[in-house]
Amino acid sequence: MPTPFTHLHVHTEYSLLDGLSRIGPMVHRARELGMDAIGITDHGSLYGAIEFYNECKSAGVKPIIGLEAYVAEGSRLSKTPADKSPYHMTLLAKNNAGYRNLLQLVTRSHLEGFYYKPRIDRGLLQQHGDGLLALSGCPNAEIPRLLLDGNTAEARKRALFYKELFGEYYLELQSHADVPQLDALNKALVQMHRDTGLPLVLTNDLHYVHKEDSPIQDLLICIQTNTNIQDGKRLRMEDDSYYLKSSEEMAALFPELPEAYENTRRIAEQCGVSIDFSQHHLPKYRAPDGSTSQDYLARLCWEGLARRVPNAPDSYRARLQYELEVIEKTRFADYFLVVYDISHFVREHGILFGVRGSAASSLALYSLGVTDVDPLAYRLVFERFLNVERKDMPDIDMDFQDDRRDEVLRYVV
Question: CA 181, CA 144: separation in Å to the nearest integer?
Fold first, then answer.
């Protein structure tokens, strides 16, 4: 029995209208097959990364986070008809630095490079290549396209460029009967391996969990391409090989190239992203006067109290001082300022809003103008909302005028 195979080219339901694999069943099927690691490489996105990470951890399977990126031929900023078909590239995070760089690449591909697909380019890869390793990808990828076009010298030049960029670059072998050019491509990749020393790696272009899911995958492709299943000319995945194959099935594909199989283990051992869910990662509010968040919050609260409760009695001053001390100890000043900023925006623009729940018991929020209920007048208890023993986030539930909610969302973004 071979050592466990690691699937590194994996599309889940988050490869929208292209992947069928549900993350939970996929991870548990890998576990059933004796696999102790599996990757996720959805098209141009990391939508499923956190669900995948958690599911793998609970199942005792090592998560390998990556994506099948879309790489522009030239600049990601170019948006001409010639830019409609970007290359594919499989990227995997080796460590937390690599995961952060994947986040950067995905974000900028959507905000800067989106043209039919969210695209990156070589410039972005040079900026955010640390902690990543790359596989050459499917037949729609850069090196395979060049090889299939007979441009062997340029393919070799670019492959060595990526080897220098990432430190590790693998030539990806696949076997699917409905892709006629794969035989020629695999031969060219093996020859490049012999000429350059670039390592080979075996993958399966995984889109669904079980072999019998193939007809459902075909329907999904029909939805994606807006075609009828009876249309003989439509795009289809005719082969039923795009499922989560066992280690034995993968080992049988290229028995003459055992290193391509074994390199999946080598890659799995190198990859180790660790995500800490025990800490809050709140946005930092930059005070316009350059002061700390806590000092700026205190100033806004005292000024607000003077406006809302002129000549405030000592009980109000003592309560606000106490609340500010609790906010400082629990380190939520930035959160209060972000909520203040949102409420300030909606008030300035005449958007109706309200606050629900225990947040109404905070004099600080009343002073900031977030709430309109004087908590002391109704003897509301601040500790119900926030206290030093509470480790969870305070919950400030805000409702906005439904026909103008999009304005608030755009402002928050």
Answer: 10
Cα 93–Cα 98–Cα 101 angle in degrees, nearest 5: 120
Note the pTM of the prediction, 2 decimals: 0.82
DSSP E strands: which ranges in 235-334? Answer: none
Q: How many CA atoms lie within 13 A of 58 on its CB side?
A: 11
DSSP 259-285: HHHHHHHHHHHH-------SS--PPPP
d(CA 225, CA 387): 54
Buried b (16+ CB within 10 A) or exposed e, 371-410: beeebbeeebebeebbeeeeeeebebebebeeeeeeebee
- Dihedral sign, CA of 137, 139, 140, 143? positive
Task: Write out pLDDT tens, residues 60-77.
Answer: 999 999 999 999 999 999
Q: Which residues contact 331 (CB under 8 A, 6 or more apart)?
A: none
How many degrees, rounded to 5, is the angle at CA 20 between CA 92 and CA 248? Answer: 65
Residues contacting 71, CB < 8 A, separation 6+: 86, 87, 88, 89, 119, 120, 121, 122, 125, 142
C-alpha to C-alpha distance for 292 and 287, rounded to whole angstroms: 7
Residue 127 CB partners (closer than 8 Å, separation 6+): 104
Report pLDDT digits (tens) over 214-263.
888 888 888 888 888 777 777 767 789 999 999 999 999 999 999 999 99
pLDDT of 292-319, one tens digit each? Answer: 999 999 999 999 999 999 999 999 999 9
**pLDDT tens per residue across span 333-373:** 999 999 999 999 999 999 999 999 999 999 999 999 999 99
